[in-house]
Amino acid sequence: MTSEALPTLKHPDTPLRLFSDYHMHPQGHRVQRYTQQLLQPWADSARRLGLTDIAFTDHDRYHGGVDFDEIDRLRERNPGLQIRAGIELDNDPVHSPAGRRWIEKNWDKLDFVLGSVHFLERADQMFDSVPDGAAQFQARNIDEIYADYFRRLRELIATGLVDSLAHLDLIKIHGHRPTADVGTLVNETLECIRVRNLAIELSTAGWRKPVKELYPSDSIIELAMKKGIPFTTASDAHSHVQLGENFANLAYKMAEIGIRQVCIFEKHKPAEVTLQL
Ligand SMILES: [Zn+2]
Ligand SMILES: [Zn+2]
């Protein structure tokens, strides 16, 4: 394993080195069977960026493409890189019931399950589609939408099938802000996460969306820190060239806010790793 590009993840103002990306979609947005040709470029990108721990987390509706034997082969071909078998469990009213059954069946083969809410009242469109999903917010009470979103998140947590919550405040994606104080909603949700010993992710994806902010917001991160909730780091890459995107800025943010540990998972078992300087 080479270390040629390690400094790329090191923000000039911070000594923290990020080493893990726990949110990526080798299949993109269609079923593509796992093969070495599909997966190896992700391992190559990880190595180039100095990442040593990655998790494949395709959407549960593409579980048909996931092949655990191919992940094992990739592990053999890439010693020095931890490769976690994962999935992103959605609240998709059409496909996720089957996704949940698949996760239950393959629980022991999976290292990591991300939980995500992408659907509100419409069953046929993810609200986070850009730009079309923004129409779901038009002429609606934004406070009610926020309450609905966090309620769905707690429902997902209650399935007991999730290890870490993805992009916790995704509902802000198009820039809609609540007028009411959402502190109670957020606190209740983080409490559900804490009592189940789950993690939440710090996702750089928000920086490339219309809201142009990290997921989640600083105030949510600070409350999560107070509760002792651990964090995974994530780019939500839909192409291997997006892997670790904006991690230098994320490292800066984490240093600024005082996060020194990152959570990793092996067979759903969390472990906190102190970041190297
Ligand atoms: Zn997602
Ligand atoms: Zn995703």
Please, could you describe this protein's structure?
The protein is of the alpha/beta class and 277 residues long. The protein is built from seven helices and nine strands, in the order βαβαβαβαβαβαβαββ. The strands form two sheets. A seven-stranded parallel sheet has the order 1-2-3-4-5-6-7. Strands 8-9 form a two-stranded antiparallel ribbon. Helix 4 (142-158) links the parallel strand 4 (112-115) and strand 5 (164-165). Helix 1 (36-49) crosses helix 2 and helix 4 (142-158) packs parallel to helix 5. The longest helix is centred in the middle third of the chain and has 17 residues, at 142-158. The radius of gyration is 18 Å and the shape is globular. The two termini are 20 Å apart.
The count of helical stretches stands at: 7
Output the helix-strand order. EHEHEHEHEHEHEHEE
Small ligands present: zinc ion
Report the radius of gyration as a whole number of Å.
Answer: 18 Å
Alpha-carbon distance between the two ends: 20 Å
Task: Give the fraction of residues assigned to helices.
Answer: 25-40%
Shape: globular
The strand count comes to 9
**Strand percentage:** 15-25%
Oligomer: single chain
Q: Provide the low-confidence segments as ranges.
A: 1-8
Which structural class matches the secondary elements? alpha/beta
Widest sheet: strand ordering: 1-2-3-4-5-6-7
Largest sheet: 7 strands, parallel
Mean pLDDT rating: 94
